Amino acid sequence: MKIIFMGTPETAVPTLKAIVEKGHEVPLVVTQPDKPKGRSSALVPTPVKAYALQAGLKVVQPEKLKNNEEFMSLLESLEADFLVVVAYGKILSERVLKSPKKAPINVHFSLLPKYRGAAPVNWAIVNGEEDAGVTTMLMDVGLDTGDMLMKAATPIERKTTEDLLAELAVTGAELLIETIDKFDSITPEKQNDAEHTYAPMMKKEDGLIDWNKDAVVIERMIRGFQPWPVAYSVLDGQMFKFFAADVAENCSKPAGTIFDVTKKSFSVACGTGALIVKELQAEGKKRMPAASFLSGFKLEEGKKFD
């Protein structure tokens, strides 16, 4: 099969790699433009571009797709069988979606129709879902509203977004290959719009911890809001970011109160229960285990996070 691939982040790389290793022809890879990074502002290629160039594939990085006749002419001239999209990062026009001979297929990291949108894995964790997953779907001009082709589920358990995304990226690659192999025999399934939920792009303020909430809810925030915006709170005017914690069920102290400070950890009271903090980052410092943090920072019991 001739497949044009559109994707940008690390989570898209396993699917592109699987397509190449399966022996499909990839005449074109489309990814976002390089972005400046670090103090030097040196341009850094997207993970998809880095892999594609290593694999000897042709890469284009259009600044915009709308009214880009040069890009559209290239896309249509290739007469690909499939257009495969994994976290490309821009809404695609109807003309782009109509360019392949067979179908445009999206690999979406949720069990549709739940969690349409930009951050499905983050919100699945934060909202306490038992399972996450991948759906391959036919693309239309709506936001993740196309007919579903295949699904694969995986338990969330105590995984962070980064852990779960890495797992789903591999699952998605396998599911895409199976979808392509079985495409002619798959009956697309329409989504039940009444069951849909939305997973919007996260904002910095989403990570601000409200200690009046249940400890279980805050612990899910800590896992779900990684690597950004990260769950955070303020103590004595200093920001602290939290990366790992365990839940303690019984606590009668006021929400936000620091207690049970040991050499290895400390606890913070919540609206219900408490969190035993295992990993954090103080403002201006590196991320570290609580034991390392406590060896160099005197934390007073009884003080409260804002």
Description:
This protein has 306 residues and is an alpha/beta fold. The chain contains 8 helices and 15 strands. The chain has helices spanning 13-21, 47-54, 69-77, 94-97, 120-126, 161-181, 215-224, 290-296, and strands at residues 3-7, 29-30, 35-37, 42-44, 59-60, 82-86, 103-108, 131-138, 148-155, 231-235, 238-248, 258-259, 266-269, 274-282, 288-289. The strands form 3 sheets. The protein has a 7-stranded mixed sheet with strand order 5-2-1-6-7-8-9. The longest helix is centred in the middle third of the chain and has 21 residues, at 161-181.
**Helix proportion range:** 10-25%
In total, the number of strands is: 15
**Rg over C-alpha atoms, rounded to the nearest angstrom:** 22 Å
Let me know the average pLDDT.
Answer: 97
What fraction strand?
15-25%
User: Can you tell me the residue ranges where pLDDT is under 50 for at least 5 consecutive residues?
Assistant: none
Q: Give the biggest beta sheet.
A: 7 strands, mixed
Distance between the termini: 57 Å
Question: Structural class of the secondary elements?
Answer: alpha/beta
Main sheet strand line-up: 5-2-1-6-7-8-9
**Which series of helices and strands comes N to C?**
EHEEEHEHEHEHEEHHEEEEEEH
Question: What is the global morphology?
Answer: elongated
SS element count, helices: 8
